[in-house]
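seq/struct pair 1
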Amino acid sequence: MFDPTKPADNSPLDAGEMRQQLTSLKALLDAVHPIGGVTGYLKSRPNVPALPGTWVECNGQAINDAESPLNGLNAPDLNGAQGGVPCFLRGANASGGTGWG
C-alpha cells in the first residue's frame, strides 16, 4: 500500500522501499484512471498544465507507446470525427458510447 510518509524526510533512500512505493502508487493511479479511461480536461483554461506525457488527447491521433496495450490504435476523435460535428461522451448500455449533435 502506498505510504506518502515514506521515505522520511532527510533519510537515506532504500531502493527496495522506493520501488515498493512507486509500484503501489502506479497501482493506485491505474485504479483511478485505468488504461483506456477517458476524462474531461480543460486544457484551454489559464494555469492548467499540459497533459501528462503518458496521456493522449482524444483527437484521432495514433497511440505510439510500445508498453501500452493500445499501441498502434487511434484515440477516438471527440473534436469532430463525424463529418466535422463535435461529439461527446455519454452514458450507454454498452462500453464506448458517444453522442453527436
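seq/struct pair 2
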Amino acid sequence: MIIPLFKTHYSIGKSILSLDSSPDLEDSGPDSVIDLAIKNNLSDLFLLEESFMGFLEAKKSCEDNGINFIFGLILNFCDDVSKINEDIKTVPSYKINIFSKSAVGCQILYKIYSRCHCSQKKVIDLNILSEYWDNQHLSMCIPFYDSFLYKNLFSFDIFCPNFSDFSPVFFLEKKGLPHDAFLTDAINSYASKNNFPTQEVHTIYYKEDKDFEAFLSYKLICSRGSFGGFKSSLEKPNLDHMSSDEFSFESYLQRL
C-alpha cells in the first residue's frame, strides 16, 4: 500500500492545493484536497503540514464528507537544543513528521508545536519531545527527504538521534530523482538494523503532472526570486528535489 501524503497552501510555498470543497468552484480555481479525496473514494486523508493553520478547516470538511482525517506536522529537530549558540543564524537541523492518532493526540501535538515555535530558532530535540510523547496517541514518521539520514548522506552533517523512547516508521518514496535508489538503500539498511518498519508514501503538492510549472512558479514567488542565496528562475529554480515533476496526485494514481 502506498499512502498519499497531501500538503496544502497553508504550508506556505509548499503546495498549490487548497481545502475548499464546493460544487460552485470554478475549474480555473485551485484544486481541492477534499475534492480529490471525494472523487477518488479515499476513506482516509493524510494531511502533513508545517503549521496548524488549516487544521480546523480540514477537520470540518472531512467530517462533513465522511472522511477519516489524519493530521501530521513537520518539525525541525537538532541533536541538542541546549547547545545552540544564541548568536548562530542557522541551526543545522533535520525533519521529523509527527501524526496524531486521536483528539488527545491533536492536543499533545499542538503543545509540541507551540514548544518548538516558542524557540527563536524554531527547533526542538528528542529529549524535549520525550517530555510530551505518548505512543497511544502519537506516531513518529521519518520523511524520505530532509531526514537525518538524508542530511548525513548528502549534506555532510553528523546527526545521531536516539529513538529509544519512540517507535518511528521510515517513509520511502519514488520520485525518479538520481539519489532516490541510494537513499532507499540507506533507509532500508538503518531500519532493518534497528528493527524499525518502513512505509511507502507519495507526497502530493499538486493535482496533475502538468501543474508542475504552476507549482514551481508559486514556490519562486514565495522565495522572492532567490533560494539559498542564489537567484532563481523557471529555467534555473535552485530548489531542492525540483528536478522531478512527480509530486502530483496523478503520479500517485499511476503508482497504484
